[in-house]
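Field log, afternoon session.

UNIT: design team B
ACTIVITY: writing a sequence onto a fixed backbone
BACKBONE:
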């Protein structure tokens, strides 16, 4: 579990981290460098979930690399599907990481929503729904692996 006290915000007790895949963990269906090593560290603390529309048709390869079977999102109402998945896990104990327009509700409803700026960019609506914005996926994973780093940014 990730456990950190944020002054003015309360205690974060994160049991699950949900990641969008394309644009967040990967570009053109290929994982960003360092994702695998950082996720190995993170999975010792929390349960990892992947949600994807499998835009590039390479999710099976990514699943094998990460040792996690992604949940495939169906076309249409993708943001609502991702938010519903979060709700089933219990949003108050989840962090969500994404950058696409279909990640906006998930980031808004998660206990901590992290928007990643990526090579594909980040949807403005998603950026505005996030609690924390980071320059890349490695930064997001580093913050999750070292949660005390969130204190200075999120304290109120």
């Amino acid at each position: 579990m990730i456990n950190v006290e944020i002054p003015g915000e309360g205690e974060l007790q994160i049991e699950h981290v949900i990641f969008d895949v394309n644009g967040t963990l990967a570009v053109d269906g290929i994982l960003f460098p360092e994702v695998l090593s950082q996720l190995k560290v993170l999975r010792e603390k929390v349960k990892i979930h992947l949600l994807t529309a499998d835009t590039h048709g390479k999710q099976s390869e990514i699943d094998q690399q990460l040792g996690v079977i992604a949940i495939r999102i169906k076309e249409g109402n993708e943001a609502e599907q991702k938010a519903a998945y979060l709700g089933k896990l219990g949003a108050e104990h989840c962090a969500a990481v994404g950058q696409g327009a279909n990640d906006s509700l998930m980031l808004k409803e998660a206990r901590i929503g992290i928007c990643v700026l990526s090579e594909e960019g980040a949807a403005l609506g998603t950026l505005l729904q996030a609690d924390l914005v980071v320059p890349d996926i490695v930064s997001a994973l580093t913050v999750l692996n070292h949660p005390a780093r969130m204190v200075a940014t999120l304290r109120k």
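LOG NOTE: The radius of gyration is 14 Å.
NEXT ACTIVITY: expression trials, pending approval
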